[in-house]
Please model this.
Amino acid sequence: MKILLLTPQLPYPPHQGTSLRNFHIIRGLAQACEVSLLSFLEPGQTIEAEKIAPLAKLCQRIETVPVPQRTTGKRLQQLLATRRPDMAHRLFSQAFNVRLLQMFQADDFDIVQIEGIEMARYLPVIRQGSPRSKIVFDDHNAETELQRRNFLTDLRQPRRWVAAAYSAEQVRRLRKFERWVCQQADWVTAVSYPDKAQLEKLTGGKTPITVIPNSLDVQQFQLEAAEAIHSDIVFSGKMDYRPNVDAVLWFLDEVWPKIRQERPSTTFTIVGQKPHARLARLKNEPGITLTGWVERVESYLVGAKVFILPFRVGSGTRLKLIEAMAAGKALVSTAVGAEGFPVQHDRELMLVDESGGFGTAVLHLLENPDERKRLGQTAQQFAQQYDWRVVVPKFLEGYGRLLA
Model:
């Protein structure tokens, strides 16, 4: 079976949600298929053979195109002159179109898999260039619902009303675009059952949608104690991603003051690349470390006493939850942070939505190592079902049905 994946950034090194999902999909598929990859290359990424050797070993062929650069003026022009959502423009590139058609001329693919909605505008090009191929749309987030939640969150803050207006318009456009993509694909996959329900609502139940969760290499997070970088509280994620920024700022404004008042020595480390300008005020805050890009997130997870997921907005699932569980950590999360996972309060983690209760849960775990150990052991067992060796075969089962 020959598979071509289209990805929004080179999935190596696999350092954050999208690249992690895509790398482990490739890793699993390569056990049974010939996998080719056409990917955008972000600034700072490289295709030097020795630096992407683990990915190159898995793929028959890797082709890349630089990420298209868009000015603010260009974005505004696209917003005013078209009816497509911003995400449909973000990674649309004639150079990518040309390279895609060249790959179709050189090879016949049984499956072409679109990784995320930013790549979905290439669907007509796939139909044109490779009409025999079956198209799989792997929807990493229920994007319409994510924007709706962004709108509702920003609407509560007058200083964010401009952002709320933008989100309201994007909801309208995304609803139409996401529905179209799902209806045009031969098979749609979602990362969670809540996302599946949102997509089924969007499409009227007319599109086959299968839940295939995010996965990782569980063994990767079982490090020696000497490899740990210690902090009381840890959050990780790409720090220019809007739900991550909102989560950290909510925690710092609504929860952190209580923790510092009752436990002044507490340390909090925010691990993730590209910190947004809204986080600049944290640089001189006592007890807080904003790392920027790091070589190994795992070291920070292993060194954490408590891992937090203080999310108010989001869709899909937070792969960081499974990473922290695989590292055997005690977690405190809001319902949105743990959405899509079959977890229960005080079994695999602590689930708290209200700011006062969230702080109380964090403080309780910081002061009770036995409780941290209990939750961490249960969490580590829970994470086993999300190992890539368990999850990715579900794609192969779906391909078999498509090609039967």
The first strand starts at residue 2 and ends at 7. The chain is about 45% helix and 15% strand. The CA atoms of residues 68 and 93 lie 6 Å apart.
